[in-house]
Amino acid sequence: MFANHPKGLIAASLSNMGERFGFYTMMAILVLFLQAKFGLDGTNAGIIYGVFYALIYILALVGGLIADKTRNYKKTIMIGIITMAVGYLLIAIPTPTPVPNMALYLTLTCIGLFVIAFGNGLFKGNLQALVGQMYDNPAFSKMRDSGFSLFYMFINVGAIFAPIAASGVRNWWLSKHGFAYNSDLPAACHQYLSGTITPEGTTRLSEMISKADLNGVYVNDVAGFVNAYLNTFTTGFHYAFGVAIFAMLISLVIYMVNKKTFPDPKKVDKNKIDPNAVVMDAKEVKQRMYALFAVFSVVIFFWFSFHQNGLTLTFFAKEYTLLSFGSFSITAELFQSVNPFFVVFLTPVIMGLFGWLRARNMEPSTPKKIAIGMLIAALGYVLMVLGSLNVPLHSDLVAMGGLPEAQKVTPYLLIGTYFILTVAELFISPLGISFVSRVAPPQYQGIMQGGWLSATALGNQLLFIGAILYEHIPIWMTWSIFVIVCLISMTMMLVMLKWLERVSK
Fold first, then answer.
1. Residue 2 domain flag
2. Among 248, 255, 320, 451, which residue carries the largest CB count within 10 Å?
3. Strand runs labelled E in 68-162
């Protein structure tokens, strides 16, 4: 599998696994943590979630600029790993729930999130730039797309286990204190504390308490249960964030041990291994930059749709989805393991397909693959539309205090959707990174990888719109918006296709 690829590829992939572990820990539990910890509604939790994920990517521009100016990619990446670990430590320290001072504790949480995002900005784009520099060597240049696909596959190994670890730590902490997990309880507890709970919600809360209070400690003490359950639930989340620290430290060790196998841009510039790839006139540089910015502007809308997996699709898992397979119970967070699982196991299939087409001179260009990926993403949300036609409005669900089990949809709906969205992701994300590394002028490698991530950031900044739609219009209509957005993105890519193919040759 790695026979025709540079030696440092697998080391770079393993170094990135810790970042992916933390990223998918956040994707699995961040919005649920914000709701359970602070009693935020979906819209406000979605705004914080969207800003955080936007910062993760937009700060890659800062990290890319620092690395491009200093030409010290390796040190910038190392500092990024350490900074991320510090950020996770800040939000892993348990604080009381219900919070005695909303402004103070929410600010402290946001500071921790910013530190994580800043560290990610120093790390993510620059490691991708180093991988791209490995394929600037003519001996490996033809394998660039497959190289980034392998890179993307291996970094997602850590992502598979992150949601499992996060929900496992939280559930372990609950059971240690005599409680059972129930995804609907935190919202009902906050409604009780704020005095906004309906009579139907009160009845539903009593039913959930009888099942969640395993030792019967809080019989006839609703207030005591509500306070104890919320504090235990969120403390478990705090400890789950702490697991990401260890993942970061493992990545740091792998990175430091293998640092010498990565390319050194200063030496590459001095020796000029491939003059044709390094020397460009001003006109060619402009054409390449225009092409990159055009692609960036299009993928904004794809990421706005795709990254709903950590927001509205997580809401849907928690509120509308049956969290069991027969007698086997699951948690809402575990659905976030489905996407990276499919990334790991579908990547060889997609690579095999592209290799088969390449052998017959039928392989689509990278821009065309991205356009196809956007069509596939639209099909994923078509499935969600069909599966959500009969579910109630979110406002009705809140008044009911949660949806009865008999009315919830099968978990296979989300699994099928994640399967389709993952195929779309494999047509877009690793190949988009490859496209940037191929087209970006050498002196702008870091900042252009930051540009790709910044396009993702702008898409993430729009995520809260999905949360607003989710809470105010029929659920099937929310998914329909994402279908339309993905189709518009595909159309824009097809319109620019010939130009992009010409520039990227």
1. no
2. 248
3. none
Question: Which pLDDT tens digit goes with each residue over 255-282?
Answer: 999 888 888 766 554 444 444 444 567 8
Output the domain CATH number for residue 140.
1.20.1250.20
What are 331's two structure tokens? 């948690």
Contact status, residue 146 vs residue 425, Cβ threshold 8 Å = no
Residues 6+ apart with CB under 8 A from 8: 130, 131, 134, 258, 261, 262, 263
Report the pLDDT value the prediction gives residue 124, as an integer from 0 to 100.
Answer: 82
Q: How far is Cα 251 from Cα 393, in angstroms, rounded to an integer?
A: 43
Q: Give the residue ranges of DSSP H helices in 310-411.
A: 312-319, 338-359, 366-387, 394-400
Specify the amino acid at residue 296.
Answer: F
Residue 265 tokens read as 């841009």
Would you state the structure tokens that stand for residue 131, as one six-digit string?
Answer: 């991988």
Residue in this structure with the two tokens 């306070």, named with its chain if needed: 227
Does residue 6 form part of some domain? no
Half-sphere exposure of 384 (CA within 13 A, CB side): 34
Domain that holds residue 450: 11-503
The total of structural domains in the chain comes to 1
Question: SS3 for 4-23, per residue?
Answer: CCCCCHHHHHHHHHHHHHHH
Residue of 92, 81, 90, 130 whose CA lies nearest to 112: 90
For every residue of 178-202, DSSP letters joined together read: TB---TTHHHHHHHHHHT---HHHH
CA dihedral 43, 44, 46, 48 (to 10 degrees): 160
Give the amino acid at 22: G
Q: Tens of pLDDT along 315-324?
A: 999 999 999 9
Domain presence at residue 331: yes
Number of DSSP helices (H) and strands (E) in the chain, helices first: 21, 2
